[in-house]
Amino acid sequence: QVQLVESGGGLVQAGESLRLSCAASGISFRIATMNWYRQAPEKARELVARITSRGSITYADSVKGRFTISRDGAKNTLFLQMNSLEPEDTAVYYCNADGPYYVWGQGTQVTVSS
Length: 114
What we know:
seven-stranded mixed beta sheet, globular, 114 residues, 11 strands
């Protein structure tokens, strides 16, 4: 079963941190590019961070220096460490796999109060 399940979202104040997790079933990080997207109310879904099968990482300019994407192959889990959160980071965050999978998680809500 190919499945992504996000967790770790919540309500925090500006300046605080959250770590999102994405449990990946039936997906090999050895061949997959893994992504974090987010979608704020009335806005398009946007790519936040990406890590390729070879470990190359890219970030959206808006989160560079604050967010860190990582993965644990032994646990088949993708992470997004989010520090110095801002109200503008409020969105539903989605885990996604590219390549042979093309699967999305259900999303986890992150709300940052000012």
